[in-house]
Amino acid sequence: MENIKHFLGNFFVTGEPMIYMADVAIVLVSLGIIFVLTYFKKWKWLWKEWLTTVDAKKIGIMYIIAALLMLFRGGVDALLMRTQLALPNLHFLDSQHYNEIFTTHGTIMILFMAMPFIIGLFNIAVPLQIGARDVAFPFLNAVSFWLFFAGAMLFNLSFVIGGSPDAGWTSYTPLAGKELDPGVGENYYLLGLQIAGIGTLATGVNFFTTIIKMRAPGMSLMKMPMFTWSVLVTSVIIMFAFPVLTVALAMLTIDRLFDAHFFTVAAGGQPMQWANLFWIWGHPEVYIVILPAFGVFSEVIATFSRKKLFGYHAMVFSMVAISVLGFITWVHHFFTMGAGPGVNSFFSLSTMLIAIPTGVKVFNWLFTLNKGKIQFTTAMLWALAFIPNFLIGGLTGVMLAVAPADYQYHNSYFLISHFHYVLIGGTVFAAFAGLTYWWPKMFGHILNERLGKWAFWVFMISFNVCFLPMYLVGLLGMTRRMYTYPAGLGWTSLNLIETIGAFGMGLGFIIMVYNIYWSARYGERDTTGDPWDGRTLEWATTSPAPEYNFAHIPTIQQVDDFYYMKKEGRQKEISKAPYKPIHMPNNSGVPIIMAVFFFIGGFGLVFEWIWMGILGGIGVLACMLYRSFETHDHHYIPVDEIERTEREAGRFS
Amino acid sequence: MSNEHTQAHASEHTGFPWKHVIGLVLSLILTFAALWCVTSFAFSPALIVTVIVILAVVQAFVQLFMFMHITEGSKVWQITAIGFGAFIAFCVVAGTLWIMLFAL
User: What pathway is this protein said to act in by its record (chain A) (predicted)?
Assistant: First the structure.
């Protein structure tokens, strides 16, 4: 009996009223979801239409729903931190709890919010933009999503079962090693990221193949939409960067679970090797989340300036340059490790060099706006706000790139502010811009512009209120990850302002969520499929697009061909009868079942229950084996069904 | 206007995928050989590293030929891809050695 009590006391996180409230909330929400699904008899619908789907458009929607949930979770973490730091000497959170919260905030926001958000946009826009019916490997795409989801859920479970990781999102050894950080928290980090990372790697392969192999006839690489270009370059970076993370995570897992010594000095390991490996992945990762953002802004700015994107070739070449240079700048994250003046000088220089192609892109956007007929839609507002906000983040980045000066800035709030300016001002603004821009294509109605603009202004101003003072408080000496601070250092008022800004961002998010609810009920329906008078192929089909995307795959003649199609009246050919049967992949339950086994195996390894890890592994292999012998993996959509769909959309001709 | 443009995996596969099975078995053997060499023998570190690097390079070739269609498709793509891969590998390995020596 004592044993069981002891086990349960360690298994569930105890002693913190906020955690108990979270426990209750989790149970109630889960029961609520089960009740609603059962009461409205929606289980079968959920399984057939969503959980087993291999349709990139639906997978994209699921990615974005998950990303919004994670944005909420990571945002709550942020608000808890800002509450703790609002005034000196607060003890709202204790130091351990604070460590856990900044760790989960960082990890969730990068890996489980930014990544799925942009990958969701890949899924929604890329196949449509290149005139394809789906991605190259639809089944693998579903596997990617469910692995991400299993990884995210495993990671999120940590705060109620076993305890959260607490060594920072960078999980530096020796702090994250077993000796200094016993318990299961860091194991959650390692396994959660590992499982999600495999999914991301597969996404990179999938979208690279899709873009290379499945473009509509006539669409040469240099005629692709800019967002598709950014996804192509990003996929390359994913394929080369993520294996390094996989290896680093595996090494630390082996250290912690099987007592190896890759990162422990005692038996000849090198703790700093973790920092090195982490950032070999981590720096390209920054470009993985920012290049698609650049792609979104390129689309939005061109569409709402009513102009062709300025400097198409320069845009492409600067992205390719960034993808190469992005692999040789990683040391700037740990100049203060003191690898030596030669190393620091080289990486300082390479970091400044990468600012050049980024600067080229900024000028291209400005010249696209120049003499354009600018429409200030919500998506465009996010794009316009991105330029100055990202510039602030970028320029302070160049300041941080100066290695000697970095010894002053390193790990201060100056750095915190810098990377929030590039990640929020870049990636998050792009996520919101892309969400607003492609929302009609996803759901067939337009998000309310008035509410959208309110959300934009509240969020954007609050963002600056929150993060601009951080540069100052950083220069005044406040370092990151301190859980409280004494009065009388001149930090108090700045911190209070930051906290007000943080809650303002929360308010902006609430307006956004309300807008989603309001627009779903009362929003303007998009019957044209082309609500923004767009320039790229995704606007050539209905909103939302049918399962097969296009009744006929269009032939492409130039960049922004849809714009010219509309001028020349060629766009009607896409839905013109007669049709031919369309070859499509079948739905499959294997991806989600496989992800469940990954989750079980991962959970077992977190608690070092090796038998459970092996059990999960066997399940995963069994799923793969089953899939290998599955022969009925595709079907043809018959002509009369295409006819019916096109007729219902009013496009049959 | 072409309707033949369908899924990339549309071609029907026939026959037993010997190539993939052999590739998988060889990869597993080479990986466990590396582990075995570290755990079961008291070689000098230099010898261990040499053996592991040789096994890794052999495995890279096994995967390129058995799984990654290195002999198929356009030469330009293959050379670009391998070239970029070699460049990244060089940056990662040479960069790591340089950084972790703490000498310069």
Answer: Energy metabolism; oxidative phosphorylation
Query: How far apart are the C-alpha atoms of A541 and A536, rounded to whole Å?
Result: 11
CA distances in angstroms from B14 to A226, A252, A603, A631, B18, listed in the order given: 39, 42, 39, 11, 11
Instruction: Quote ipTM for the complex.
Output: 0.87
Residues in A closer than 8 angstroms to B10, CB to CB, are: 583, 634
Q: Based on the domain organization, do B10 and B37 belong to the same domain?
A: yes
* pLDDT per residue as tens digits for the range A577-602: 889 999 999 999 999 999 999 999 99
> Hey, are the CB atoms on A331 and B103 less than 8 Å from each other?
no
Question: What pLDDT, on the 0 to 100 scale, is given for residue B8?
Answer: 43
Helices A272-305 and A115-129 cross at an angle (nearest 10°) of 40
pLDDT digits (tens, 9 = 90+) for A90-139: 999 999 999 999 999 999 999 999 999 999 999 999 999 999 999 999 99
Instruction: Say if A6 is an interface residue toward chain B (CB within 8 Å).
Output: no
pTM: 0.95
**Same domain flag for B61 and B92:** no
Residues B67 and B35 in one domain: yes
- A294-334 pLDDT, tens digit each: 999 999 999 999 999 999 999 999 999 999 999 999 999 99
Claim to verify: residue B104 and residue B63 sit in the same structural domain: no
Which of A456, A451, A454, A460 lies closest to A515 in space, CA to CA?
A451
Q: What are phi and psi of A384, to 5 degrees?
A: -70, -40
Q: What residue numbers bound the domain in which B92 lies? A: 74-104
Q: How far is B30 from chain A (nearest CA, A)?
A: 17
Chain B residues in contact with A327 (beta carbon < 8 A): 88, 91-92
Judge whether A554 is closer than 8 Å to chain B, CB to CB. yes
